[in-house]
From TrEMBL, chains A, B:
Domain of life: Bacteria
Keyword terms of this UniProt record: Transferase
Organism expressing this protein natively: Carboxydothermus islandicus
Protein name (Swiss-Prot/TrEMBL): CoA transferase
Presence of keyword Transferase: yes
InterPro entries hit by this protein: CoA-transferase_III_domain (IPR050483), CoA-Trfase_fam_III (IPR003673), CoA-Trfase_III_dom3_sf (IPR044855), CoA-Trfase_III_dom_1_sf (IPR023606)
Molecular-function annotations in GO: CoA-transferase activity
Length: 395, 395
C-alpha cells in the first residue's frame, strides 16, 4: 500500500538552477521518473555553484536534484533532437525554465511537441511568462523580488531595502508550476490530452502579496516595510530581550489579555489606547515604548516559558544551525541525507508533504552528469550508437 | 474546450484566515466546487479583519475567498454534524487548518470520516503538523517565520531582525497543501481510495530554506542576513542611485564583463580581486566601495536603460502601487476585480497558473456568510428543516 504517489509518471526535465529544478525535485520526491537533460560536459549551471562536497559535487545542485536521472544531450545537434523527440513520445510531462522562445529556436516548441505527443503536459516556468512586453527580458530571483513588490514591504522603515533571504521568487514559481502540472494531469484524465502550463516568477510574486494588494486597493496607501511588525495586528512582532529576541503574536483580544497578565502589565488592559486591536495598531509606537523595557528584564528563554505557560503564542528567532537539532524538525523527519555519486553525504530539506498511504520522502541518490545516458539510450534502441554519439558531441 | 480544469471536484472547506483559505482559493480559481463551512453568526475570523469595503466586507476575506460558496454549520451541535457527514459522503476533498486534535474532539477526525467516505482526501494544514512534540502548540505565520530560520537570514547585517513582508509561512503551507491534495487525487485514480495530507507550516519553512541548509551542512558556518546581497553571487544586490535603488544581477562571468563595460569601469576586468565569482564574493565589500559612487551619479531610470541596453539583468524596487499600472502585470491579467455580495468591487491578485486549454482565472463572486446554506441543505434533502435549524442555532 505505501508506495510513491506519482510512481510511473514520466517527466522530461530541461530545467536549470532553481525554479524549474525545485518543481521537478518535488515531482521526484513524490516518485515521478524524472529524466534531467543536461548539456554534455557542463550540465546544469548549478553544478558549478559552491560550496562543494569532498568529491566535487555542488551542495546546491545535490540538494535540488536528488532522485532524478541525468542524461546529456546537446540539443543544438540534429541527432540529439531526434533522441529528444523519442523521449517526448513516452513522457507525460516536460518542464523547462528557459527564457521564452528558446525551445522554439531549437525547433522544440510546444506546438511541435504536441504533434509528437498530444498527451504531453508542457510546463514552462520563466521570469515574466510566455506573453507580454517583458517576456524576453532576463530575470533572476533578485530582479523579480524587486519588481514584484515584496522587497518594498520587507525591511526596517527608513532603512535600505532588503532581499527575502531565500530565493522566494524562484521557489514560489516552482511550487505554482507543480500545481499547474498536477492540475493539467487531473484534467487529462477527462480530456485525454495535455496542454501548456505557463508560470511566470513575476506573476507568482503578485499572487503572494497577500493583504498588501487588498490594503492598497481599498485605501490607496502604499504599504512600506515594518521591521518585524504585522501591518494590522498588534502586538505581533519581535521584542529585544536581555540576550536576543522573542516573537509575540497576539492575534485577538483574548490573547492580548493573557499577554498583559503574563508580563505583569495588567494596567494596560484598562488603557483605552489599547482597548482593541485597531487601537493597538494605531498606537503601536506608544505601546512599543512601554513594552521595550519590560522585555529587556529577562532572557529569551525565560520569556518563552512565561508566555507559553500563559497560552500566548510566542517563539524564538532560530538561526539555521538550531534547526539541525530542533525536536519538531527531527520528529517530522524534515532533514534527510542525500548521497552523491562518490558516496559523500549531505543534509537536505525533505519533502514537507506527508501522505498517510504513500511514501513522499526524498530519494537520496544524486546523479552524476550523464550517469543515465547509456541506460536511457538503450531503452530507446540507440544503445549501439553510444560511442559514436559521444564522439560527435551529441551526448 | 476551454473550461475550468478542476470543474466537478467537490471540496469541503473548513479553513479560516490564511493558510487553508489560500489553498482552497487556488482550488476554487481552478474551478473546484468549494463549499466553505463557517460558524453561524460569526464566520471565518478574517471577515473581521480591516480594511473594509463600503458594504462592510473585509478586503482581506474577499481577496482570499472569491469563488467559494459559504454555508453555516455549528459543528458543536449534533444536527450540524449529521448534515456535515452527508456533505462528506459526496465530497472529494476536505481541507481544514485547525490545531491538530480539533476535528477528533468534534468526532469528525479522519479515521471517522474515511469510514463514511473511503475516497475522501482529507488535507490538514497546521502550524507544526499532526505529529511531534510541538503538534498542539499555537502557531502564527510570525512564530513560524522566526522558528523556521527565514528571519535569521533576512534583513541587514548587525541590525534587528525583520519579518518577510508577506505571510510566507501561511502561503507556502497553502501551496504545499494544494500539491498534496492534487497528488493524492492522482494516486486515487489508481487506488480508488483517498488518504490524509498532513502539511505543517514549520516543515514548509525548512523546505524553502534553499541553499542556507546546504551551506550550513557543508561548512558549518551559520548563515546570517545580507541586506540585499546574494550569499554566493556577486555583484547581485541593490545599489543606491541618485534617486532610489537599482538592482543588478550578474549571475555569471559574461554578465560581469558586460556590467563593467556598461558602467564604464573596464579597469575592474583586469583586477584580479574580481576575476571570478568566488573572488568577487570574497571581496564584495571592496567592490561595493568602488561601485557605490558610480551608481550615485545617475538616477534609477537612467541606470535601468544603460544596463538593459548592455544586456545586464537589472530592475527597480517597485512599491505596491507601481504594480497597478505595470505593463507586464496588466498584460498577464494578474490583477482582477472581485465582487462582494452588495456589488462592491475590489482589485485582487489573479491566479498565476496559465493553462493553454483551460480557464484558470479567479471567479470574482465573494460569498456572504451563509449565502448558500439553504441551497446546499436543499440539495441534501434538508430544505424543509431550514427554519428549525436556524432557530436551533445549527446553521
Amino acid at each position: 500500500m505505501v508506495q510513491k504517489p506519482l510512481h510511473g509518471l514520466k517527466v522530461l526535465d530541461l530545467t536549470r538552477v532553481l525554479a524549474g529544478p525545485y518543481a521537478t525535485m518535488i515531482l521526484a520526491d513524490m516518485g515521478a521518473n524524472v529524466i534531467k537533460v543536461e548539456m554534455p560536459g557542463r550540465g546544469d549551471d548549478s553544478r558549478a555553484f559552491g560550496p562543494f562536497l569532498p568529491d566535487g559535487t555542488s551542495a546546491y545542485f545535490a540538494s535540488l536534484n536528488r532522485g532524478k536521472k541525468s542524461i546529456t544531450l546537446n540539443l543544438k545537434k540534429e541527432k540529439a533532437r531526434e533522441i529528444f523527440l523519442e523521449l517526448v513520445k513516452t513522457s507525460d510531462v516536460l518542464v523547462e525554465n528557459f527564457r521564452p522562445g528558446t525551445m522554439e529556436k531549437l525547433g522544440l516548441g510546444y506546438e511541435k511537441l504536441k504533434e509528437v505527443n498530444p498527451r504531453l503536459i508542457y510546463a514552462a516556468s520563466s521570469g515574466f511568462g510566455q506573453t507580454g512586453p517583458y517576456r524576453e527580458k532576463p530575470a533572476y530571483d533578485m530582479i523579480v523580488q524587486g519588481m514584484g513588490g515584496i522587497m518594498s514591504i520587507t525591511g526596517e522603515p527608513g532603512r535600505p531595502p532588503v532581499r527575502v533571504g531565500v530565493s522566494i521568487g524562484d521557489i514560489t514559481a516552482g511550487l505554482f508550476t507543480v500545481i499547474g502540472i498536477l492540475t493539467a494531469l487531473y484534467q487529462r484524465e477527462e480530456t485525454g490530452v495535455g496542454q501548456m502550463v505557463d508560470v511566470s516568477m513575476l506573476d507568482c510574486q503578485i499572487a503572494i502579496l497577500e493583504n498588501a494588494i487588498a490594503r492598497y486597493a481599498v485605501n490607496r496607501e502604499v504599504p512600506g516595510p515594518l521591521g518585524t511588525r504585522h501591518p494590522s495586528i498588534t502586538p505581533f512582532q519581535a521584542y529585544p530581550t536581555q540576550d536576543g529576541y522573542v516573537i509575540v503574536a497576539c492575534g485577538n483580544d483574548t490573547l492580548w489579555e493573557k499577554f498583559c497578565r503574563a508580563i505583569k502589565k495588567e494596567e494596560l488592559l484598562a488603557d483605552e489606547r489599547f482597548a482593541t486591536n485597531p487601537l493597538r495598531t494605531k498606537n503601536v509606537e506608544i505601546l512599543e515604548e512601554i513594552l521595550k523595557p519590560v522585555f529587556q528584564e529577562k532572557t529569551t528563554a525565560e520569556w518563552l516559558v512565561i508566555l507559553e505557560n500563559a497560552g500566548v503564542p510566542a517563539g524564538p528567532i532560530n538561526t539555521v544551525d538550531k534547526l539541525f537539532d530542533h525536536p519538531q524538525v527531527l520528529a517530522r523527519d524534515m532533514l534527510k541525507e542525500v548521497i552523491t555519486p562518490a558516496g559523500d553525504r549531505l543534509v537536505a530539506a525533505n519533502n514537507p508533504i506527508k501522505l498517510s498511504y504513500a511514501d513522499t520522502n526524498l530519494n537520496p541518490v544524486v546523479p552524476a552528469l550523464g550517469e543515465h545516458t547509456r541506460e536511457v539510450l538503450e531503452s530507446l534502441g540507440f544503445g549501439d550508437k553510444y560511442d559514436d554519439l559521444v564522439a560527435e558531441g551529441v551526448i
